[in-house]
Amino acid sequence: EKVRDAGRYLKQTALHRVxxxxxLSYESQSHVDxxxxxxxxxxxLCVDELQACVPGATESADAAPLAKGDRxxxxxxxxxxxxxVAKRAGLxxxxxxxxxxxxxxxVVFQACEDAGYRHARPTPIEAFCEELLDEHxxxxxGAIDEFYGFVRDLRVPAQxxxxxxxxxxxxxxxxxxRPEKPPxxx
Length: 186
Known about the structure:
- The chain is mostly helical.
- The chain has helices spanning 2-49, 71-88, 101-113, 115-118, 123-152, 161-169.
- It has six helices and no strands.
């Protein structure tokens, strides 16, 4: 009798596990498909129709995935996001000078939280963004603030935002070779 009951229990449990596994697999794929659809719709609306976003701010569904451990690529992707939210907030105009660094920090953190909706393959970007802000929050916020300070003053920034964040603050990209100076005119 105990063996029969145990067999019945195992049969029910096995059936439940098979059904649960199939359900989880379906739900997982549905989530991936839904995210890709959101990215495609956002790109269509934001970039193509409204022309309110930079094309790089929303990855296309067929974009090449970041190579595992491509911290430099993830950083460059995030800089586009940071530039987008900064411009959307008006940091490039005189009124942008009124924004505090605390406000800017919150906006940068929000950009990281929203990365899952801007990129077709967000996991490495989200993970790198969290790591970047954990380790270099003050440097990233300072670089964005300084860059847009130059822009507001109509001065040419010493370096672009990608150079400031990815090469100098986070140091995740190899140093760029310095351009050779042209030979003097003879």
